[in-house]
Amino acid sequence: MDLATSTPLPAQITLIRSQELPDGIHSSTRLKSAVNAGAMLRLRRGIYVHTADWLAAPPWERHLAAAGAAAMTRSTPVFCRETGLALHGVPLIRTPDAVQLRTRHQGGTRLVPPPVMTGSTDPRAVVRRHLAPDDDERAASASVVALRGIPTRLHEHVAPPRTSRPAFRLLVGAGHEPPHQDLAMGFRDHWPGSVTHCAVEEFGLLLADTVPRMETGAGVVVLDAVLGARVRSGARLSLEVLEAWGGFIHSQRRLGRWRACLELADARSESAGESLSRVRMLDLGFEPPQLQVSFDLGGTVARVDFYWPGVGVVGEFDGKLKYTRGSGLSGASAEDVVWEEKLREDALRARGLKVVRWVWDDLQRPGALAARLHTAGVPLAKKS
Predict the structure, then answer these.
(1) What is the pTM of this model?
(2) How many CB atoms lie within 10 A of CB 135?
(3) Could you give all domains of the chain from N- to C-terminal order, each with its CATH number?
């Protein structure tokens, strides 16, 4: 599972724009030479990145870099769908496979391939130059895939409620500006001075157009974050406002999924893993748990992710980011955080509670999650 984090991390990728140098030589000449030597990559026309930085960065950082390059090279880009959500800092289960933009051109979706990132050099040769001694074949293959680049996918604007597609196309062609907002902070955090403007589709429309196209679990992850104020940009909408944006969904099938995701959304979930866990439990037929229940452990209070009071079972989702993020915020080492978790779990068991834990891999393999919950004694939901 490729979790696109919403944590504001320092950028690992520097965006370099080609320009004329004081000696009269255009920097693109030198940058192209660096590309052919495997030291640099061409991300977009006139925008370059260091190869080592690109290969070392996580997928979501590469996606944001490609979006930043699009903002630097296109005149009036309006970001939409998963890219728009990523710029807001909404947690996504998977990193988008393309930079998503709106277009005034008619004809539906159009895919614009990226430039050849490695110039005249074979990508496999570039990877060999940058592999660490302990990298295996799997790491090499992943690096070659990363050098294929990130395309741009262009989408027509969404027609308002009770407006036909042909009529709306005429409006857009005449200069009508669909709703959008400036979100340059999504780039300034990463590349100060490089990207000065960033138009993103209106947040409510962004959600209504994107969530219904997602698998239900991924959609609930997004909506939980919005309702629970876990969006880095600060964007937040109430359930009532989200329901109203459903008027922009013209497909009955997608409208049904939108409503289903809204019904499942819960502001109390505190992470993408907790949100997805709830959906998986429902799909597997388990009794819905209570969320964020607190227990007095004699001087300290433990708040647990999930609790089934009828059987005395506590459920905890273990995400890898939990320990690294917790250590960064508290100043404690990751080992200290793990030890504190163990003591907390021991105290819960001392109260007669059973504790069951699961990780991302279990959410990818529902049978594994079901086995863990069954073994712990979590009951199935009663059939109505």
Answers:
(1) 0.88
(2) 14
(3) 16-201 (no CATH), 273-376 (3.40.960)
